[in-house]
Amino acid sequence: MNIPSKRECFKLIKKMKMMGHIIDHSIMVSNIALFICLKLKKHSPDLNIRLVTSAALLHDITKTRSFDTKESHSETGGLMLTELGYPEVGDIVRQHVILDSYETDSPVSEQEIVNYSDKRVLHDKVVPLKKRLEYIKLRYGTGKEFKDRLQNMWATTVDLENKIFCRLDITPGQLSECMTQEIKMGDYNGPENI
Fold it and tell me: Given CA atoms 109, 113, 48, 171 in this order, what sign does their dihedral have?
């Protein structure tokens, strides 16, 4: 499996001219994904932490250009990373908005961690799912097709939150506080620790 190093991730981010606020968002998503992985490790020892954190860091790799092109940044980001020789990372990036499949009783997967972590970060802050949902509704449209897709996606995300946190020793509401403490302690302060 070919996974880009932290340095390679940031070279790609620079090459793609990602906007600063999207980089900040991606770093926080990666930090949350790392935190969840470390917490889940005793339940899911096969989790590939490097795969998760790299995919989380690169999940919005084509988002900046998508503002002009109107492309689906999850699809094009996944394709780009696959073409660059990172197919497993590309597959996770492709699924960061909507998962291909979801099973409540299976072990938590790398793509589920990245998908969920993205849903908990508004800009660069950890927020409850409800606040992120409200933002997505306001930011990305209100058409019937979008509302139906969003409703389905959100039901899965709520189930996914339950699936993840039933295995952890914290609640979803404590995630923001835990991340703030971890960052203050210096364990998760940006790209150097991913």
Answer: negative
